[in-house]
Amino acid sequence: MAPALLDLAHWSTWAVCAVMKLPQLEAVRKARSARGVSMGSLLLELAGFLVFLRYQIYYGYPLPTYLEYPIITAQDVILLLFILRFSGHMKRALFYAVTFGGGWYMLTLRKWIIDLAMNFCTLISVASKLAQLRCLWQTKDSGQVSALTWSMSAYTCATRIFTTVMTTNDLAVLIRFITMLILNIWVTATVLHYRKTKKTD
User: Fold this and answer.
1) Can you give the three-state secondary structure of 56-94, one letter per residue?
2) 34 DSSP assignment
3) Which of 29, 82, 125, 167 has the highest local Cβ count within 10 Å?
């Protein structure tokens, strides 16, 4: 029974991640605006994803436990390009590419660097979610922020808590997913709150 549940958790996570950022991408593309989407949050999320992905690869964890990260990282890069384009800052794309590419390389120069980065990865991801919450609280407007994307993120964190316990049982990874689950639910609730508030005004 446990192997079947593990396979179901893996497959459902991959399926959700394959489309997770599409509602957000479509909202930004359709509006030709990233109003409400925090650029700082996106950059921190991308940094967190890259550190986490590099950590998983470095330690040789089973591919099924992190296969969704290349998928959602690619979607985040596309979202970043949309935001840069619609805000008139496309020239910054090269700077971000060099920064993230250099960081990817430097993470595994020494074992202690990747271990330290993984410890900071959860803090980076927390900062990402808090940056999005701060943006929502300041504007009191969910703008183009997709509640569906954030709720899918919460789902994938929940499934990854299960798969981590069943496979690697890595405490740092487990803490990260529990923390992200709580914050993703919080962001989703905040987006829905401001969307409801805007409709009743």
Assistant:
1) HHHCCCCHHHCCHHHHHHHHHHHHHHHHHHHCCCCCHHH
2) -
3) 125
**DSSP H helices in the chain:** 2-19, 22-31, 39-58, 68-86, 92-106, 111-139, 147-166, 171-200
Rounded to the nearest 10°, the torsion over CA 128, 131, 137, 139 is -120
Q: Is 138 exposed, middle or buried (0-12, 13-18, 19+ CB in 10 A)?
A: exposed
Burial group, residue 191, by CB count within 10 angstroms (0-12, 13-18, 19+): buried
Amino acid code (one letter) for 21: K
Q: What is the dihedral of CA 50, 3, 149, 18, to 10 degrees?
A: 70
Q: Cα dihedral sign for 174, 178, 181, 183?
A: negative
Q: Which DSSP state fits 196?
A: H
